[in-house]
Amino acid sequence: MSDLFDLLNLEAEYSAEEIALRDRVREFVDRRIRPNITDWYERAVFPTEIIPEMAELGLLGMHIKGYGCAGRSSVEYGIAMQELEAGDSGLRTFVSVQGSLAMSAIAKHGSEEQKQKFLPEMAAGRVIGCFGLTEPNAGSDPAGMETVAVRDGDGWILNGAKRWIGLGTIADIAIVWARTDEGVRGFIVPTDAEGFKAVALEPKMSMRASIQTELTFDNIRLTEADRLPGATSLRAPFECLNEARFGITFGALGAARDAFEVAAKYAGERKQFDKPLAAFQLTQQKLVNMALELNKGQLLALQIGRLKDAGKLERHMISVGKLNNCRIAIDICREARTILGGNGILLDQSIMRHANNLESVRTYEGTDEVHTLILGQHLTGENAFA
Description:
Protein name: glutaryl-CoA dehydrogenase (ETF)
EC number: 1.3.8.6
Shape: globular
Cofactor: FAD
Pathway: Amino-acid metabolism; tryptophan metabolism; Amino-acid metabolism; lysine degradation
Strand order of the largest sheet: 4-5-9-8
InterPro entries: Acyl-CoA_DH_CS, Acyl-CoA_Oxase/DH_mid-dom, Acyl-CoA_Oxase/DH_mid-dom_sf, AcylCo_DH-like_C, AcylCo_DH/oxidase_C, AcylCoA_DH/ox_N, AcylCoA_DH/ox_N_sf, AcylCoA_DH/oxidase_NM_dom_sf
């Protein structure tokens, strides 16, 4: 898409509207994120002051139609996630948690009253949501969740804990998944409810300009109106996770692209043995290999996006995108760092920050192992999870 790595004129595969969206988000990243991300990352601060600007760009719940949301296509959503992650994975994660997880849960499984109440405010960034699925003892196996909701008259009592929950300490509402006598159910939990507690998980070596938390629920009383009526099984949270996984398929390439561009620029400027690093065969081989993987990853993301917009996307295809593009993104960052030598570990260069962040991106929304087994089951028909 009009980038240094584009060896195949990939830009021609995008519409004028898609390119215009890319340019608007890229301008925002260049203006608001790049000049400040080193400071935010070093101080481990998530910049809440940019939330209204993200909302103004239509980035929050941008793939949801109606209710004050932008109603953009899947490909447009992916493009935006790629540009944001070129700035920093942690800031792309904010948009993903707010839109693909919390807002999608309400849009897909909420009542009309819940949609009217929450989605416009969340799209405007005035209400922040988090998504409570992963637990201290249940990560890759959400069916083993220990959080429970018990009926109490015409309401519910919620007890349990969630871990590695993005935005928990700044959220106004939490989408919480719990076991009940009727199966897994989802609830919209006000974070100011008595018995709700959110604690930031720190210090971290990855995703430092983002917020990850542990949530605890101590006899929180909820009403039936707090339950997501359309969420009647564990399939419901997985539908939301697939939205987030789709965004990662595009997003991880943004981090990789930025690392590649930094390395290519450095190789052209840094001289050793009286010539730039870019003139050495081994450096050119590194750049070529990185560019090839970026092109393949971009084509993969675009194909998945077009299939999603056409209503033809199958579950295993998202695993192809998430597994492959996270894997190549980390490899590209590691290779790009070698071109910078020792200078590559300094925070004023983006490469190590991207690499550290991608270690988290590779893990959340399904580890390599989980997506490998999803694909293995698709290829063989055999369930190897247990």
